[in-house]
Structure formats: structure tokens, C-alpha cells
Design a protein that fits this description.
Blueprint lengths: L2 H30 L2 H9 L24 E7 L5 E7 L2 H6 L1 H5 L13 H7 L5 E6 L11 H9 L6 E6 L13 H18 L7 E6 L1 H14 L9 E5 L5 H7 L1 E2 L3 E2 L8 H9 L7 H14 L4 E8 L8 H13 L7 H11 L1 E2 L5 E6 L3 E8 L11 H14 L7
Parallel strand pairs: 3-4, 3-5, 5-6, 6-9, 9-12
Antiparallel strand pairs: 1-2, 2-4, 7-8, 10-11, 11-12
Helix pairs in contact: 6-14, 7-8, 8-11, 11-12
Length: about 400
């Protein structure tokens, strides 16, 4: 075979390969316009990551016997959510004998359990409601270390309530933006009305996709009459909105999916219109801050992100922080102007990252950028424990002395 024939053969092979890639990519884009495929791509609810373990046996995930109580919470539209109530370890130690003697596994009536009464009957008890990210279940990945970090600041007082959204794990239904908001409202309603924990003793914590649910629910409750504002709202690795996220998202930080089309505004805008669940956190965070400022309600918003996050770049947090700050003042403030203010005002922590706090007469908006932590590992870091403690202490200065 001559050199010319080899070159022609190679060119033909490359042409066919390129054509196959283009067809496959076009097919993928076509599938992404359907609501079913969008749902699986956005929420990844079919990817459980706990297939070979029983969620009703939390001990297999490293918990002490009956430290976790699995139960269910009913939603207003008829769906049922699978949930865990997790006792803080020092409180568990004090009641270990009686807890060990109880039966194990899922309970249909959580009010009959010692763990529930320890939460409901303690006027100093605090509760972190945990809203997890896309994919998996309450026990997947770094979520278990995250629960320990959430209660570590006061291991005798801080309980954790976590749950799977509709369509995730053992919860019924299929995920959607309105549905997940209903789910979070149902869990909050259970915490406040069944467990009897007031908003001033609750922190809403969320990571990744859960941050969109968190801020949407926080906005809704803060704008109702009378408004409900929690001791703290904590967002870890949030995103501005789904459209912005897909324009930058890369699988494992390297393989782009939709981002190549961002160079073609007409095509990209057309695809944006086909996005079903938009999760516009930038608009929700603006409404949340404005409602609190207008109602003169005390609030604390903490946004945390790792610089080395491959899944959601940390500039999403910087943009959300700008939207939040801008909503707290009457005068205009450009993104670049805020970045300049950061140079003068932020606290440089060296290898640990940086902190910027924006204080108003009614609230605190805090941005924490960690140098490391990736997308999930950061959930077990002390920065999470500190964020929870700051929120509870700001709501009640005597809490750390109790």
C-alpha cells in the first residue's frame, strides 16, 4: 500500500469516526430535550450507590446501634419520603443502654422512640435539616461523614434530620422542581409541628443540587405571612441555575456535555428554553434576602465552595454571593465592584482559603472559599462544623455554654 493510499484510508477512518461522534452527540442532545431523560440527568435518582446495603440497618454505614432511626414523612400530594433521624454521639452515650434495648430498623411511629423524645422534649436541642445533592441516597458517598461534621460542634445537642427526595432511594414518586420543594416543606413541617422545634433552633443545610431546594424553600417561607426564617441557611457547592450549570459542566471536570454549544448563542438559547426544571437560585437568593431585609428579620446565609471543585466551579458561589449582597442594599453594585471590595475586606486564610462577610442591620451573608475539598469531600471538613456552630450561636449567644 502506497503512502497516498494509507493517507486516504486514514482520512476515511477519521471521517467515519467523526460522523459517528457527531451523530451520537446529536442523539444525546435530542434525548436531553425530553423531560424523562432530563430528570435522570439532573437528579441522577436512579443511581443509588447503596444497592448492596439495607438503609433500614444504618449500623452497616458505621452508626452505633439505634443511633439512627429510619422512618417516613408524608407529603401533601400523597408521596412518602424515607428519612433518618440521627442522634448526636454524646447524647447517645448518655442514653446508650436504653437505646440499645430498643428494637432495630424502620419504625412506623417514630414518636414511640426514645430518640424522638430526646429531640422533642429538650428545649435546648438543635436540629440540622439536611438536603442532599443529586444521586444516591441518605447513606451514599460522603453523606455519612457529613452528618458527623454537622453535629460535631455540640455532640450533646445537635440532631440531624436527613431524607431522600421523591424518586430517590426508598421514597415514592418521581423528582421534579415543584415536587422537591414540596418534599422539603413537608420535612420542615414535620420538624416544627411534630418534633416541636422552632425555626430559631433549626439550620437548613444543603450541598450541590440540594442548595437549589434549600434556597427555594427558604425564599418561600421568608416571604410568607408571617415569615419563617431559620437560625441559619448553609449552601455548599451551589450553582446559579441549571442553564448556567450545564453551560460549564464537565464530567469528572474534563468531558464537556453542553458547554461546547455555549459558543453558539442561538442554539444554546433554544436548548435553554427546553429545560424543564430551571432551579434559578440567583433569583431565589435575591428574593430571600430582600424579604428578610424588608421584614427586618434576622438571618444568616453561609455559602461554602472548594476551589478545586470539578463538578460545579466555585465561581457559581461568587456569583450567588454577589446576587445576595446586591439584594441587601438599595444602591447598585456591580460584580467587579464587589470583587474589589473583597480585595480590601476579605480574610485571607492562606492554604485554608478565604472568607468574606457582608453585614447588614438584619443579617450576615458569608462567603467561604476553601482551597481544597473537591465537590463532596469538603462535607466532612471542620469548615462545615464551624458554619453550623456560627449559625446556632448567632441565633442564641448562650447556646455554646449550655
Amino acid at each position: 500500500m502506497t503512502a497516498r493510499e494509507i493517507a486516504a484510508s486514514a482520512f476515511e477512518w477519521l471521517s467515519v469516526s467523526l460522523a459517528v461522534v457527531v451523530v451520537l452527540y446529536a442523539t444525546l442532545l435530542g434525548l436531553l430535550t425530553t423531560s424523562t431523560v432530563q430528570s435522570h440527568v439532573v437528579y441522577l435518582h436512579a443511581v443509588q450507590m447503596t444497592w448492596f446495603k439495607d438503609l433500614n440497618v444504618p449500623e452497616t454505614f458505621g452508626f452505633l446501634k439505634n443511633q439512627v432511626t429510619p422512618f417516613s414523612i408524608n407529603v401533601s400530594d400523597g408521596e412518602r419520603l424515607y428519612a433518618w433521624h440521627i442522634l448526636p454521639v454524646e447524647l447517645y452515650r448518655k442514653h446508650e443502654q436504653s437505646l440499645v434495648e430498643e428494637s432495630e430498623g424502620f419504625v412506623s411511629d417514630i414518636s414511640s422512640r426514645i430518640s424522638f423524645r430526646l429531640l422533642r422534649d429538650d428545649p435546648d436541642a438543635r436540629l440540622v435539616i439536611h438536603l442532599h445533592g443529586a444521586g444516591g441516597t441518605v447513606a451514599s458517598g460522603y453523606r455519612v461523614p457529613n452528618y458527623r461534621a454537622l453535629s460535631a460542634g455540640h455532640p450533646a445537642k445537635i440532631h440531624v434530620l436527613t431524607f431522600d427526595y421523591r424518586g430517590f432511594g426508598r421514597s415514592t414518586g418521581s423528582p421534579s422542581e415543584p415536587g422537591l420543594i414540596l418534599d422539603a416543606l413537608a420535612v420542615i413541617d414535620w420538624a416544627m409541628k411534630v418534633a416541636g422545634i422552632p425555626a430559631s433552633r433549626i439550620v437548613l443545610f444543603a450541598q450541590s443540587m440540594g442548595t437549589a431546594v434549600n434556597i427555594a424553600v427558604s425564599k418561600k417561607l421568608a416571604s410568607q405571612d408571617p415569615p419563617v426564617v431559620f437560625a441559619g441557611t448553609i449552601l455548599v457547592a451551589p450553582f446559579v441555575d441549571v442553564a448556567t450549570l450545564v453551560s460549564t459542566y464537565r464530567v469528572a471536570g474534563t468531558i464537556p456535555i453542553i458547554s461546547p454549544l455555549a459558543r453558539f448563542p442561538f442554539i444554546f438559547k433554544h436548548l435553554q428554553r427546553l429545560i424543564r426544571d430551571k432551579w434559578s437560585s440567583k433569583d431565589n437568593i435575591t428574593s430571600y434576602i430582600r424579604s428578610n431585609e424588608l421584614n427586618h428579620k434576622k438571618y444568616r446565609l453561609t455559602i461554602i465552595h472548594a476551589e478545586d471543585d470539578w463538578d460545579i466551579p466555585c465561581h457559581h458561589t461568587q456569583l450567588l454571593f454577589w446576587h445576595a449582597v446586591k439584594a441587601s442594599i438599595n444602591t447598585g453594585l456591580s460584580y467587579d465592584e464587589l470583587e474589589q471590595k473583597k480585595l480590601d475586606s476579605k480574610t485571607d486564610l492562606g492554604a485554608a482559603g478565604s472568607i468574606m462577610e457582608w453585614r447588614t442591620d438584619h443579617g450576615v451573608i458569608r462567603e467561604e472559599i476553601s482551597k481544597t475539598g473537591l465537590h463532596d469531600v469538603i462535607m466532612g471538613y471542620p469548615v462545615i462544623t464551624m458554619a453550623v456552630m456560627r449559625s446556632f450561636e448567632a441565633a442564641d449567644a448562650l447556646f455554646t455554654l449550655n
